[in-house]
C-alpha cells in the first residue's frame, strides 16, 4: 500500500481505473452489442459501455476508498455483479512519482466528492464518432474541482490499424496537467467549439455573438476541453443547461491545473459538493487562459444569459 497522501492515491487509482474502462469501452464497440437505451431526452442515450464503465469505476473506487462520496451519471440498474477483473486496485506510478501540492496534504475522505461520467459523448459513440468519447473522473475537495482524469479511448484511431489506441490526461491544481501537448490556439483566428447534438437557439446565438472565424461542432464536454487545451479551439461555448456535474468536474480541474478557466456563462464557478444540484443550469464557458475568458463572457448577450439560471 502506498504511503502517498489520500488525494494523490485517489488520482493514481483513478488513472489506472480509466485505462481499464478504456478497454471495456473498446471491447463493447468491437463486439458491436451496444445495448442502447433511450433515456428520453434529446440525444440522451445509455449504452452497455456507460453501464459497465460506471460499474468498474464505482466498484473499484469504493473498494479502495470506502468513505469517499461517489456520484455517477448512470442510474444503478440493479446489476451489482462486477467481474473480478473490473476491480482495479492498481495505482499509476506516473502519478505517484509526483509530490502532492502542500495545500492538499491533509485532505480527508469526508472533504472529497467524486463525479464520474463513465462515457462522455455517448451520442457520438453510438454514431461511430469515436474520438469524441472520453471517460471522466472528477475529484472535488470541499466543493471545488481540484483533480481530474480525462481518458480518451480512441485517441489515434485514424492513425491506422497498428496504432496504439487511447491516452490518459490528468491534472491536479497546483501540480499541473499531464498526458498531452499544451499548445496555444492560432493567432488571427477565433475558433469556437460547441455541441453538435444538443444545439438550441441560445447555443447558436451565443456562439455567433462571440464572432467565430471557425466553429467546431463536436461531441462531449471532455473532448471539447481537450481541444481547448491543445490549441485547436480558442473557446468552448455552450449556452445550455444540458451539462451536469460529472461532465465538467474532471475537465474543469485538468484545465485549471493547466492555467485555463471553466465556468458557467455568467462567469460563476461551479460547486461540486455532495448536496449541489446535478445540472449546470448556467451553461459552460471554457478558455485556455484566465485572460481570454473575460472577452467571451462580455460577448455573450445578456438576453441569452437571462435564459440560463446561475449554477
Ligand atoms: N441536453 C442534454 N441531455 C443529456 N446530456 C447532455 C445534454 N447536453 C449535454 N449533455 C451531456 O454533456 C456532454 C457535452 O454535450 P455535447 O456533446 O452536446 O456538447 C454530452 O456528451 C452529454 O454527456 P453524456 O454523453 O455523458 O451523456
Ligand atoms: Mg449521458
Ligand atoms: Mg457526459
Ligand atoms: Mg456519460
Automatic annotation (TrEMBL):
Pfam families: Inositol_P. Its EC number is 3.1.3.57, 3.1.3.7. Its cofactor is Mg(2+). GO terms for biological process: phosphatidylinositol phosphate biosynthetic process. InterPro entries: CysQ/Inositol_MonoPase, Inositol_monoP_metal-BS, Inositol_monophosphatase-like, Inositol_monophosphatase_CS. It is an enzyme of class 3 (hydrolase). Keywords: Hydrolase, Lithium, Magnesium, Metal-binding. Mg(2+) binds at residues 73, 117, 119-120, 247. GO terms for molecular function: 3'(2'),5'-bisphosphate nucleotidase activity; inositol-1,4-bisphosphate 1-phosphatase activity; metal ion binding. It catalyses: adenosine 2',5'-bisphosphate + H2O = AMP + phosphate; adenosine 3',5'-bisphosphate + H2O = AMP + phosphate; 1D-myo-inositol 1,3,4-trisphosphate + H2O = 1D-myo-inositol 3,4-bisphosphate + phosphate; 1D-myo-inositol 1,4-bisphosphate + H2O = 1D-myo-inositol 4-phosphate + phosphate. Belongs to the inositol monophosphatase superfamily. This is 3'(2'),5'-bisphosphate nucleotidase 1. It comes from Capitella teleta. The lineage of its organism: Eukaryota, Metazoa, Spiralia, Lophotrochozoa, Annelida.
